[in-house]
Write a structure and sequence with these properties.
Layout: H1 2-13, H2 15-36, H3 41-65, H4 67-73, H5 87-90, H6 95-119, H7 126-138, H8 153-174, H9 180-200, H10 205-211, H11 216-220, H12 222-246, H13 251-271, H14 278-305
């Protein structure tokens, strides 16, 4: 029984999805190292811990406040990438425990942030940057704001998992101004995670509409959002190339090439209506996540090789 509860907490934590935040954070520190020649491994370690706590708190909060809509999604076409973990719906973990775990994680993250700012002297904007992450994460699904219910969740996710993680990591390493290269490097990551969230809303379309959760897909429909997906994909390709022009090592294009091909294929499938088939849609969701991870990993490899 205990083993079952432990597995349930692991599923509830959605650790695989934490990588989409941690990888850009690592990239930010590597950029700081590449640009300034300075890298504090201790600061990086504490920073990763703080980020992980914020990500876990976000996941627990989302599972708690999306309980009803996720229960609906279970019978209305969800797949492995949508509709939550379904752990709370089984009753193995009481629903209120997810909310408690969320608040505990946020408070621990705040403690680590204070340690970074006041003990390791990472700069006066350390805690404000962390608070931005909390605002985006906690209120993604939590009342009274509920970004995800107002067609703003996708933008917040793009901002938090794109620019914020990258910029915060760079900042705590240098304590100074964030260069333009960080902004341009964050853009293809932000756009690719935007597409991850967007395509994951397709399987939840009917459940979200019934529950009044007005994601972009629920508000505007799958056909229109399939075209937005393709447009955002073009933005990923263009912004990636522009980040290289702004200073990312040219070798990045070599590492990015297989990701680019996969992204073209996936964007074409979505544009041509591949989302109408349940099995194909699940594969599209998986490939979209791979594109996001591939974008970040290719940038990390380019900086490391450089």
């Amino acid at each position: 029984m205990r083993y079952g509860v432990l597995r349930a907490w692991v599923s509830l934590s959605r650790l695989l999805f934490c990588t989409v935040g941690i990888l850009p954070f690592l990239l930010g520190s590597l950029l700081a190292w590449d640009i300034t020649g300075h890298l504090s491994w201790i600061v990086l370690g504490w920073g990763v811990l703080s980020l992980l706590l914020i990500l876990l708190a976000t996941h627990y909060s989302g599972e708690y406040f999306d309980y009803e809509v996720d229960a609906l999604a279970a019978g209305l076409g969800r797949n492995r990438f949508s509709g939550g973990s379904q752990v709370l719906q089984t009753g193995i973990i009481p629903r209120k425990y997810a909310l408690i775990a969320s608040f505990v994680s946020f408070f621990l993250a705040a403690g680590v942030g204070a340690l970074l700012q006041f003990y390791y002297k990472t700069g006066p904007f350390t805690l404000p940057l962390g608070i931005l992450g909390v605002i985006g994460g906690l209120f993604y699904a939590a009342k009274p704001i509920q970004w995800a219910y107002r067609s703003l969740g996708e933008i917040w996710i793009g901002f938090c998992y794109g620019w914020l993680t990258l910029a915060a990591s760079y900042y705590i390493q240098t304590g100074g101004a964030i260069p333009a290269l960080v902004y341009w490097t964050a853009l293809p990551i932000a756009l690719s995670i935007f597409n991850v969230i967007l395509i994951n809303e397709f399987p939840d379309y009917w459940a979200d509409r019934e529950a009044g959760k007005l994601t972009l897909v629920a508000r505007f429909g799958m056909a229109k959002m399939s075209r937005l997906y393709a447009l955002i994909s073009i933005g990923i390709w263009g912004s990636y190339i522009f980040s290289v022009r702004m200073g990312i090592p040219v070798k990045a294009l070599l590492f990015f090439s297989p990701v680019f091909i996969l992204s073209i294929i996936t964007a074409f499938q979505v544009f041509k209506g591949g989302y109408t088939d349940r099995e194909r849609l699940e594969k599209i969701c998986a490939k979209t996540l791979i594109v996001n991870l591939g974008v970040t990993i290719s940038l990390i490899l380019a900086v490391l090789v450089n």
